[in-house]
Design brief:
Largest sheet: 5 strands, antiparallel
Low-confidence stretches: none
Mean pLDDT: 96
Order of helices and strands: EEHEEEEEHHEEEEEHHEEHEEHEEEHE
Number of helices: 8
């Protein structure tokens, strides 16, 4: 376990923003969590639980204690014809996806190359290419930060929604996640009807992909659109795709024929935030050292030397223009501290 005062968080956020916390505690074993949490005092407050930092924007130093999981370990068992895979919250999510495919356990392929840790996957309800991790989560093990008691939460308990969960609302910084168990299938059923997956498979001459081939194609698509945070600081998709009423969608479609959309149900439509941002002229545009990525408008980037406040100012300018032009308020996916 690490316990460090005045700790530099630069390596713990993929934007590469320099920020310090008053105290930093990193757990390597589940057995360390409860005793340490029970020892925290008012002087250690406030608390901030972080994962891999791929969904964080620090706008300044954090005057409190940061809790981070480095808890590793993977255990597999069977349940009703499915595989239950229990993973330490500090495991890297994409490593788990690759591990599953190598062992013939399926369901996570479309979530390949999403950055972050296992614990964060359960908080954020990560999703991509028509899949969401909520459909894989069996349960979440956590320690109540206030009482030190261990709890096991079902997927239903977590009240998952689109890029949302109770962990992001009333449970924010209430629990420290130690492990997540995913329910996977031993039968591969590919999901190909989202984005340009079929197009990319066809380009490779593949009609019926294996899980490994599907994973490789999705990785290729993501790498072609998204910048490498080691080269250009970013947190992936900065904004959530807005969900609007069918009436609002039809109103906009009359003005913007061919506007992309994804039907959720008879009453709601999802509109790509990247398309809205691009139509407002922000794609590839910069403000000082902060910019909108030139290949994917959902992504804000640190061009080098940007502060968290620079990124936030750009975010608010983008949101303002989208609201003014389309009457849609786009929300941030990134956790702004």
């Amino acid at each position: 376990m690490k316990d460090i005062q005045h700790y530099d968080l630069t390596s713990h956020n993929t934007f590469g923003i320099k920020a310090y916390c008053r105290r930093y505690i990193e757990f390597e074993k589940e057995s360390e969590v409860t005793p340490m949490i029970c020892s925290l005092t008012e002087e250690d407050m406030p608390l901030l639980v972080i994962g891999g930092g791929s969904n964080l924007l620090f706008t300044g130093d954090f005057d409190g204690t940061v809790l981070h999981s480095a808890i590793k370990g993977v255990e597999a068992s069977t349940e009703g014809g499915a595989v239950l895979l229990r993973c330490g919250s500090g495991e890297t999510w994409d490593d788990i996806v690759g591990f599953c495919i190598d062992h013939g356990w399926y369901g996570a392929e479309n979530l390949s190359l999403i950055p972050g840790d296992v614990g964060a996957s359960a908080v954020q309800n990560i999703g991509a290419y028509g899949a969401e991790v909520k459909d894989l989560i069996w349960n979440v093990e956590a320690v109540d930060i206030h009482s030190g008691l261990k709890v096991v939460l079902s997927s239903k308990d977590c009240q998952y929604g689109y890029r949302d969960s109770k962990f992001k609302k009333e449970w924010k910084n209430k629990y420290f996640i130690t492990a997540v168990t995913y329910r996977l299938s031993e039968m591969f059923t590919p999901q190909l009807d989202y984005g340009n997956i079929r197009e990319q498979l066809a380009a490779k001459g593949i009609e019926q992909p294996t899980a490994k081939q599907l994973r490789e194609v999705i990785i290729g698509i993501r790498q072609s659109k998204l910048p490498d945070p080691k080269v250009e600081g970013n947190a992936g998709s900065f904004f959530v795709n807005p969900v609007v009423s069918h009436e609002k969608y039809r109103e906009l479609a009359m003005i913007y024929p061919g506007m992309p959309h994804y039907r959720i149900n008879d009453e709601q439509e999802k509109i790509p935030a990247g398309w809205l941002i691009e139509r407002c002229g922000w794609k590839g545009k910069t403000r000082g050292a902060a910019g909108v990525h030139d290949k994917q408008s959902l992504v804000l980037v640190n061009k080098g030397g940007a502060t968290g406040k620079d990124i936030l100012a750009l975010c608010e300018a983008v949101r303002h223009d989208v609201l003014e032009r389309f009457g849609i308020s786009i929300q941030t996916e990134v956790n702004i501290i």
